[in-house]
Structure formats: C-alpha cells, structure tokens
Known about the structure:
It is an enzyme of class 2 (transferase). The chain is an alpha/beta fold.
Amino acid sequence: MTQMTFSPNAVARLRDEREEESTKPYLSRGSRAPRCHTCRVIDSHCLCSWRPKVNSRSGVCLIMTKKEVFKPSNTGWLIADVVSDNFAFIWSRTETDEALLALLSDPQWQPYLVFPGEYVEAGRVTHTVDIDSSKRPLFILLDATWTEARKIFRKSPYFDALPILSLLPEKLSRYRLRRSTRSEHLCTAEVASLCLDLAGDSQASNALDAYFDVFSQHYLDARNQLPMNESSVAHQELGVFCKRPSQESGSID
C-alpha cells in the first residue's frame, strides 16, 4: 500500500485524511470547477506561488467541523500556510482527540481560546496577550459558522480552564466570500491576524492580512470569470513576504 504524503499545512492534511475516510466526495457550491488541490482556488487563478514566507513565535490551533475543512472558501488553511506551528482538529461532541488534549497541556504553550467576551464570565476574559511569558502563545480558533462555534464552545469541557481572548477589532470584516448576518463578524484569517499582532508577531500578521486579500481577489475573479490581475495593490503588499519564481532566478549582487 502506497504511503500518502500529507502537507505540513495542518488544514490541508486534515482535508486529505478526511477524503481518505469519506465514502463519497463532499460537494460544496462551486466544487465542480477544476481547482488546485493545494490552494483550492480554480486552476486558472492558482494562489500557490504567492504563499508568504515569514517566522512567528505564536502557534495556531484550528477546531473545525467536518464540512468546513472541505469548503474552498475556508480561510483557515491560509493561516496554516503562514504560521509554521499550526494544528487542526475535527470537532466531535462525543469524542475527544487525545492529540488535542496533549497539545493543550504541552508546557511550551500558553493556550488562548479566541471567543467574544460578551458570552463568557468576566473573570476568564482578557483583551491582551502576555508576550513576555516563557510560554509561547497558542491561539485556539473555532473555525466554523457562528452557530457552530457557539455549540463547540458550550460542549467542549476541555476548554473550560482556558483564558478567553476577546478581540476588539477596529474595522469591519473585509471577507466577501460568504454572507454573514453581522458585518462585525470577522472571518478566521482576520481573527488570526489580530491575534498575531497582539502577540508581537507583526510580520506574520501583516503577511496573513496581505495573503487573505490576494486570496479573496483570486477567488472572486475566478468566480466572476475575470482575468487574474497580479499587479494589484494587494499583490504588491504580499510580494514583500514572498519568494516568487522570478525572484529566485535573479542574481543578487
């Protein structure tokens, strides 16, 4: 039997594992279009060569639903592309992944569960990240719809002892790939960018912001059958964090 090689991107690895387990493919809106297996964008607008290369002290752990991991519009995989220490788990109400419990108890990490403070008792809530601690920040993100995220929060007792990081975003969401009933709701990549900034990982935060904007442009241009435009402001901002093929072939004096 051939050994399957999974991506270091934990979300991509989780998707591949789920595909191996599934008896039939998950068909989301637009899933019939030929897509790059790595970046999930329609082939003509592939994003792979725009993956940024940055360092970060923080780690990110994504808790996902079974369907979310297959959605082409999911932004959790963008985070895993940017943050090298990335983890992803499928949530289950009846079963707990032992690897997740081991991660939460790993002494190198200080986990923060990212969730709106208005739904939590005040004593657990913080709006800041301790960047001077010997422990590295580990941001736990519930990568699901708002309704699903509230369910995960209520029915996951292993999160009960974690501090709640409640974000105070200064701008409304730029996410245009799915509809939300509340414009102040940020998508997962935007949330992660704010967390990284709070933790002092400003380069990773800026790279993720730019990567998210370029992803949104590629995704929407492909969906609207528009030609790919790699000269946009978003691409210029992201280019600072990328080693493009043209750059690799050039000489350095």
